């Protein structure tokens, strides 16, 4: 569905940040972004280019596809 990848990416960023006990501001600083932009990313409100996804994944030491995958849904 439209926007699903954006939402999955945002939820994965949020999970990454929370597992490391980082504030949104500290996480944004680590990635070189403004805090409000990071909030937009985490809420899936930004339409990222593939290049941006690759750059963010590289800064996190993650594979780009891992940040685009949705969490398994309960059945």
Report what the structure shows:
This protein is mainly alpha-helical. The chain has a single domain (4-62), classed as 434 Repressor (Amino-terminal Domain) (Orthogonal Bundle), CATH 1.10.260.40. Helix content is 64%, strand content 0%. It contains five helices and no strands. Helix 2 (24-31) packs across helix 3. The longest helix has 16 residues, at 4-19. It is globular, with a radius of gyration of 12 Å. It starts with a helix and ends in a 7-residue tail after the last helix. The mean pLDDT is 90.
Helical content stands at 55-70%
Q: Outline, from the CA principal axes?
A: globular
> Taking Cα atoms only, what radius of gyration do you get, to the nearest Å?
12 Å
- Helix tally equals 5
Strand elements, count: 0
Give the helix/strand class. mainly alpha
Mean pLDDT reading: 90
Q: What would the keywords be for this entry?
A:
434 Repressor (Amino-terminal Domain); 75 residues; 5 helices
Give the helices and strands, then pairings.
Blueprint: H1 4-19, H2 24-31, H3 35-42, H4 50-60, H5 64-68
Helix pairs in contact: 2-3
């Amino acid at each position: 569905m439209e926007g699903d990848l954006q939402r999955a990416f945002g939820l994965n960023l949020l999970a990454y940040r929370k597992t490391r006990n980082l504030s949104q501001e500290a996480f944004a600083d680590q990635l070189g972004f403004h805090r409000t932009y990071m909030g937009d990313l985490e809420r899936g409100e930004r339409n990222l280019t593939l290049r941006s996804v690759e750059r963010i994944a590289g800064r996190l030491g993650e594979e780009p596809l891992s940040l685009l995958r949705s969490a398994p849904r309960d059945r």
